[in-house]
Amino acid sequence: MVKLKELREALQSNDPLLIEEIYERIYDDYYKLVYYIVIKIVKDTEDCIEITNDVFLKAFNNISKFDINNNQSSIKSWIVRIAKNEAINFYNKQKKHNIVLDDEYIEKIDSPDIDKFLLLVEEFKEILTEEELDILMFRIYYDLKLREIAEYYNSTTSIIYTKYQNALKVLKEHYKKGDFHE
């Protein structure tokens, strides 16, 4: 993961090769997370890929707006905010044009770990609400902080924490009963 200090040093150096390397690492670090956020809103794989790339382009073109001197800032939460806004803007434009969005889900992601990930998602979709599943995925798989998830949902950290704990409780009870697929 790219540290804020690394980003700050790269930008202050004005070294185009170093800046490009940092940008590539940011892209690699957060591509799956951005894709997940966008697909949850847009639901169309082709549009999702384009929007995901637009998110990173927008982030890199507007890096000057990111407060690199604020150690409380997070590259991850900044990119999550951009992803959410871009996906919502796209969705709203499509809705205005009466375009029906496909009901595709995350199955189209291309990743070496995707088979294990999809099995878990499918398993969890059977016993958790969509919101609970998303909170778990954001927290566990994408390593977002509860504060970042709360920002995504325009909620409070305590509400997200409660939903996260409830989802874990449901999974534990389900596991104790031996109801998980082999």
What this model shows, in words?
By secondary structure, the protein is mainly alpha-helical. It folds into two domains: 1-108, Orthogonal Bundle (Rna Polymerase Sigma Factor, Chain: A), CATH 1.10.1740.10; 111-182, Arc Repressor Mutant, subunit A (Orthogonal Bundle), CATH 1.10.10.10. The chain contains eight helices and no strands. Helix 7 packs across helix 8. The protein is globular, with a radius of gyration of 18 Å. The chain starts with a helix and ends in a 6-residue tail after the last helix. The relative contact order is 0.10.
Number of domains: 2
Q: How would you describe the shape? A: globular
CATH superfamily of the largest domain: RNA polymerase sigma factor, region 2, helix turn helix motif
Structural class: mainly alpha
- Spans of 5+ residues with little confidence (pLDDT < 50)? 97-112
User: End-to-end span in angstroms?
Assistant: 33 Å
Described by strand count, sense and barrel closure, the largest sheet is:
none
Tell me the radius of gyration: 18 Å
Helix content: over 70%
What order do the helices and strands follow? Answer: HHHHHHHH
Mean pLDDT: 79
Total beta-strand segments: 0
Quaternary structure state of the chains depicted? single chain
Separate helix tally: 8
Based on the structure given, which CATH architecture of the largest domain is correct?
A: Orthogonal Bundle
Strand fraction: under 5%
